[in-house]
Amino acid sequence: MKFTKKSQEHMDACRFCWMCRHICPIGNATGQERNTARARALGLSLVAREAVAYSEDIINNVYECALCGACVKECVTGWDPVAFTKEARLVAALDGKLPPYVLKMVTAALETGNVYGATPDDKLTAKIKGLKKSDTLFFLGADARFKTSANAVEAIDLLLALGVDFAVLENEPDSAYGLDFLVGAAAETKAAAEKCAKVLNGYKKVICYDPADAKIFRREYKEWGVDVKAEVLTFTAFLADLLKDKKVKKSDLVFTPQDSAILARDLEETEPIRAILARIGEVSEMLCNRRDTMLAGNLIMNEYMPLVMLRVASDRWTNAKNVGAKTVVTESPAEYAMLKATEPDGMTVLTVEEAVAKCL
Ligand code: SF4
Ligand code: SF4
Question: What are the Cα distances from residue 306, in Å, to 181, 217, 317, 332?
Fold first, then answer.
């Protein structure tokens, strides 16, 4: 498969530019020039011109991007490395050139419904079984179900404590977020999205625990013509609205939001977390906040470049330390897992539900 004209235009624009090199969380973690938008664009532009083969090294480089959109946000001329990187992943898939670590996850997603090929946690399954039927679905997503299931249980407990009527699916369908991350808009990704949308459309409202699922339901499904009739909300937005009518204790805790790149840049949703935290304590900001946020981790990439992901999370802790933050609050299961794994002495990462539960 060839690259689209649009992607080639974006690669050509990026390949000799260095203006966003300082902003890439992966480049900052590795210190390597290959992990910049421009270096990726240079390699891919040569592949698109058929001047070099689409080699293993160039393909590996394509998978070293977190698709976090920091470069896109920084680009004053409006070029989009995320779009051409996603297309490069699709090209690798269609050409049968996926690296083994990617193929393993894609195969797992197709065979088991999650890129990790994992089975559900017993405690979470028991919790889900105890819930009643409802026309509101709480969609947990693969990262929460298979990597941070204790948090998923806590989020369910919080919604129950707040009197919310909702259901959670024991056999939740794959949202296709993992497939979209790994191979973009392939036929298999769209088929998984169609299958998931059929389930979502059995509900009036869908509350997404993971911002990644809210994003794919609202943005990519629309782009692919996959119709979701249910109202799709993020967990944070739902909770912020819910808490308006609830009694909560204002604590003397100072919370620092770790904005999810997906929420802040793709969904342009940054205020609900602040509204929640301001109800239960004081909000103190990172220097790079809201749309300028820096990624703190990605669990899919943690499967094949764990040391770099630990470094990415540690770098975000350094940002937090530099503003004197003690308690960082995240909306993303992936960022929670990576920040927890690198939590420095005297500092804490909390999920939004953990922070709220402290003040009920
Ligand atoms: S995204 Fe913009 S700033 Fe970054 S390399 Fe491309 S053209 Fe330069
Ligand atoms: S999308 Fe994020 S990880 Fe990828 S090149 Fe841009 S800043 Fe770096």
Answer: 17, 28, 17, 18
